[in-house]
Amino acid sequence: MSNPNEAPPPQQPGSEPPQPGNVPPAGYQPPQGTPAPPSYQAPPSYEAPPSYQAPPSYQQPAPGYQQQGQPAYGMPMAGPNNAPPAGLGYAAPARNTFGLDFNNVAQRFRDTTGLPQRLMVSYWLWVAAAAIGVVASFLNIFIVRGLFGEMMVGAGIVGLIFSLIFAALYIFIAIRLKEGSRWARLVLTILGALAAISLLFQGVTLNINFIGSAAAVAAAILMWLPESRKHFE
What we know:
mainly alpha; 6 helices
């Protein structure tokens, strides 16, 4: 039986009391041949993607710039189907030009060089129909004056002004017709159809415009004959 007053026996050198937990005692060395755990290496530093570069700002081409193979702004594209007919005695606009081009209009009005015979007759018939309309409107002023007195003269003058405007459009479209414009032939075809309808009523009433309507109908027929159609191909 142990005596509590007795001192504890001395410990052997190198022995230490056990430590709490799983912590090895001081001076503990792992057995030989056990590899040490690899040291922690931080991941490579994050590299941001290259900064975004905006595309170069669009710059409008200099005035007068024209891309190869493209027509200038507002002008129809040139080509064999859009070029003026060969054989004309002057430089005409392109076939599909819709603007009111009055350059060298006097020569364009009278020169019929290179036109098929039937198309040339059709052209002058359209000019004659426009002129007859103006003359008929002028004579209508005196006819209205004789029938209704001075009160209706103003209406006759207004009719004369409108006939002058329509005659100018008739002649301009007829000029484009002989220059090979397909849209001009289409417009004159519509006008010829309207003239044919008017011809029925004017023949009954003996209206002086009967002559102009008959000229327009004949002109519309002539410009669609095979000889004339070649001018538009």
